[in-house]
Amino acid sequence: DTGVSQNPRHKITKRGQNVTFRCDPISEHNRLYWYRQTLGQGPEFLTYFQNEAQLEKSRLLSDRFSAERPKGSFSTLEIQRTEQGDSAMYLCASSLKNVRTQYFGPGTRLLVL
Amino acid sequence: GEDVEQSLFLSVREGDSSVINCTYTDSSSTYLYWYKQEPGAGLQLLTYIFSNMDMKQDQRLTVLLNKKDKHLSLRIADTQTGDSAIYFCAEKGYALNFGKGTSLLVTP
């Protein structure tokens, strides 16, 4: 399978715990994006990388959220001190630099109890 | 940001055509997209249209773009039960701005 992959697919955690999600983009895609989707809503942009550089962060990305893409390949999204409001589907997408079409992974569904 | 507007629900009979409408906000969007999401899954890119086009056809899918009114539509011909899903339109560049999605229900 050469699509975008995300792990884990599901995560249940208790409020206050830290969680980390991983995204592996389509190989050779140098842009990688994170979105959050809550129930009944469309995805909302969080941040994106071009290679290892994080080029933009949405105001939705509070200080408790941090994303990295250290070698310009896979990316991790960490949420510290999770809150119930963080419960959502976290989606990763990738694209080539000069191609606007983004391809999405299956998402990681987070439930904070 | 401003909201991309979509009707929330559409029900059609199998074999009929479905038309899903969207009003977008950013007239400078170079591309406009339609994504499909099945229950519990990620988003599947269905099709997209370049902003200097009025229409794009791709097998059973037809996209119409009215730039003056910032209106985008997706027509699915010969709708099948497997087309039941949520359809999102999206605008802008790298930071896609999505509507809330239209739930399409196809009944036998």
Structure description:
The complex is a heterodimer of chains A (113) and B (108). By secondary structure, chain A is mainly β. Chain A contains no helices and 11 strands. Helix content of chain B is 0%, strand content 55%. Chain B is globular and about 40 Å long. Classes of the chains: A mainly beta (113), B mainly beta (108).
Give me the secondary-structure topology.
The complex is a heterodimer of chains A (113) and B (108).
Chain A: E1 5-7, E2 10-13, E3 19-24, E4 31-37, E5 44-50, E6 53-57, E7 65-68, E8 75-79, E9 88-95, E10 103-104, E11 108-112
Parallel strand pairs in A: 2-11
Antiparallel strand pairs in A: 1-3, 3-8, 4-5, 4-9, 5-6, 7-8, 9-10, 9-11
Chain B: E1 5-6, E2 9-13, E3 18-23, E4 31-37, E5 43-50, E6 55-58, E7 61-66, E8 71-76, E9 85-91, E10 97-98, E11 102-107
Parallel strand pairs in B: 2-11
Antiparallel strand pairs in B: 1-3, 3-8, 4-5, 4-9, 6-7, 7-8, 9-10, 9-11
Query: Helical segment tally of chain A?
Result: 0
Q: Which pair of protein chains has the largest interface, and what are the residue counts?
A: A-B, 27 and 23 residues
How much helix is in the residues of chain B?
under 10%
Mind telling me the C-alpha Rg of chain A?
13 Å
Radius of gyration of chain B: 13 Å
Describe the structure concisely.
With 113 residues, chain A is mainly beta.
Features:
heterodimer; A: mainly beta; 7-stranded mixed β-sheet; 4-stranded antiparallel β-sheet; 11 strands; globular; B: mainly beta; 5-stranded antiparallel β-sheet; 0% helix
